[in-house]
Amino acid sequence: MVIKNLKTNEYSELEGEAYLELFDLNIKVYIDQESDIEYADLCITYFNSLSEGLIDEICKASIRYCNEFLDDIGEDIKEFSKSTDVLPLITPNTFYIPHPKNKNEPVIDLELICSWEEEHGMEWIIRDGKVMYVGPYNGVNPYGDCDIEEDWNYA
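The structure corresponding to this sequence follows.
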């Protein structure tokens, strides 16, 4: 089992911890009441096996979010030698496991803390092998349109 220290919280959701290789950290995992441990393990395992291309894409989107935010508040934008250089500015906080539409298709819904936007943080949603949302944490529905056409989605 990928998820450790499982327990039921006050909202009758399962919660536990999982290790994310990209960040070399254990983080909180919340599992929707309509989901299960097997699906949660699938989602975490999927995240830990993301391709370099998908990691590059999500890091580039995070850089766009970072630099637009910094520019909007009048601060200097950040330069990165390679896209993954943004990762030290990001700390994952919570991995949400949604009620699956298809138990064989993992979805990543990750809440992150980022150094440039401490109030709203950041959210990553990856579905069907595509980066669907990168932007301020809004609790975006991972099965919806993910605000794909909106200015605040940097995917």
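The chain has one domain: 4-135.
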